[in-house]
Amino acid sequence: MKKFKKMFLLFLPFIILFAQLLPTTQAAAEEEEEDEDERYEAIQERGELIVGLSADYAPYEFHATVDGEDEIVGFDVSIAEKIADDMGVDLHVEELGFDALLGALDTGKIDLIISGMSPTPERLQEVDFSDPYMNSEQRLVVREEDQDTYTDVDQFEGVPIGVQKQTTQEELANTELEGSQVTSLQKIPDVVMNLKNDRVDGAILEGPVAEAYVDEDEDLALADVEFENGSKQSAVAFPKDSPVLTENINDSIQTINDQGLLAGYQEEANSLMFNDDQSFFEEYYPYYLSGTGYTIILAFVGVIFGIILGTLFALMKLSSIKILKALASIYIEYVRGTPLLVQIFIVYFGTGVLGLDLSRFVAGCIALSLNSAAYVAEIIRAGINGVNKGQMEAGRSLGMNHAQAMRYVIFPQAIKNILPALGNELVTVIKESSVISVIGVSELIFQAGNVQGASFKPFLPYLIVSLIYFVLTFTLSRLLGIAERKMKTSD
After folding, report:
1. Using an 8 Å Cβ cutoff, are 101 and 53 in contact?
2. Within this chain, do residues 168 and 29 fall inside the same structural domain, yes or no?
3. Are residues 293 and 305 in the same domain?
4. Which of 242, 273, 350, 373 would be 309's cystine partner, CB 3.0–4.6 Å?
5. 80 is in which domain, residue-wise?
6. Total structural domains within the chain
């Protein structure tokens, strides 16, 4: 015991000294950690700032033809350019659906969100926000004949109201317009189209957006309704624990506010919103050409790889090996039992979590191919089962092995049986490719949204797209019909 006391007294000064140094060491470590910012360092190393936005929200961000080229413009884009310039890097704009922006930020697909987004408590749990760069009031847009009907928030019992989903406007409709029937849509033009088509009686929009639609469309008007919590702050969203990035963004916003640059950005955006020098088709036909091209490529890739993978899964399901049969069955049932939209998000965001930086187009092609494969597998399996079993026996009696009999005897007959079903699958893929617009692939529906946002015409862009889809599917159906007739005559 005495020996232990001597040892304790001997080491006591060192213990006290270590205890005094520990807080200093921890503070230094914390300070060093605060000085580190992996996202900022990645931006500097890359030499490029990737900003995500939804370019259907004029005058914040929208498509416009500038010097004959399609560009994403708006005062949010000008703010992004200012931040990138101050950081000494180039700006790259990544266009996505609004409800995909937070997922893209969380998985590292983008560095910032500058898309008229406000710092709500729910969003603050996932991301950090900069100082606000703009304050705006929420306005209720109604049809012109209803302007004097709605003057107070207490008048909306049972009244259908349109809003963009996952936005401040959606929360406002649910909390202040008591009893209203809220319809939440992905895009602002869709909300306005529902208003014009009498699907809803009012639409809550951000002040500058509401004024732009009312100025362009004489059938719309601003209702004299004031919201208690209608003041909204727009800020830049970025990943949590990014101290250096936070400081740089806030410095840029401070400069914008101090020098009054936002007014100039807004004036420039307003000047690009309405171009009366060209007709609608002259100005926007390149969007439809581009969208048609992407849609055809997506459908072609989806069906080709769908057939390849579908054939593999069909053979696995027909296999006598239980593990292969089980894997194929699980895959087919899972894919057929879940929405394509969910599968697109899993491929696009899931690969980001795994460290694979797939482009939006590649992710869309993969999701569409995997989805098509499940349906094609069942089509091919049914076609093979539809061939008389005696055909396999006949092939084997001629000295063919199982693989040769499948290739030269079974498959040729099965293809004739399943060609109509495969044709229907191709038509379905052409139409389902529209879902990929949610991650910003520039197919027909995505381009229609861009035209909506830029032209403030909610109906005409979709009418044109429907005609293009009809031409594509009708032409394909006729070609498949010709192929079927030729195969029948060759019997």
Report:
1. yes
2. no
3. yes
4. 373
5. 39-132+235-273
6. 4
Same domain, 43 and 125: yes
357: left (phi over 0), alpha (psi -120 to 50) or beta: beta
- 426 and 394 co-located in one domain: yes
Rounded Cα distance, 76 and 74, in Å: 5
Query: CA–CA separation, 152 vs 159, rounded Å?
Result: 13
Q: Output phi, psi for 73, to 5 deg.
A: -130, 180
Q: What tokens appear for 30 in the block? A: 């914390």
Residue with tokens 């080491």: 11
Which CATH number belongs to the domain containing residue 311 in this structure?
Answer: 1.10.3720.10
Residues 51 and 187 in one domain: no
Amino acid sitting at position 353: V
One pLDDT digit (tens) per residue for the chain, 491 residues: 444 444 444 444 444 444 444 444 444 334 444 446 888 999 999 999 999 998 878 889 988 877 777 889 999 999 999 999 999 999 999 998 888 899 899 888 899 999 989 898 889 999 999 999 998 899 999 999 999 899 898 899 999 999 988 888 998 999 999 899 999 987 888 898 899 889 999 999 988 889 888 888 889 999 999 898 888 889 999 999 899 999 999 999 999 999 999 999 988 888 887 655 567 787 788 889 999 999 999 999 998 999 999 989 998 998 888 999 999 999 999 999 999 989 999 998 887 767 777 888 999 999 999 999 999 999 988 888 877 777 777 777 777 877 777 777 777 777 777 877 888 888 889 988 888 888 888 888 888 888 877 777 778 888 999 999 999 999 988 888 787 777 666 55
Both 159 and 287 in a single domain?
Answer: no
Query: Residue 108 CB: number of other CB atoms within 10 A?
Result: 16
Q: How far apart are CA 274 and CA 322, in angstroms?
A: 63
Instruction: Answer for the pair 482, 425: CB distance below 8 angstroms, yes or no.
Output: no
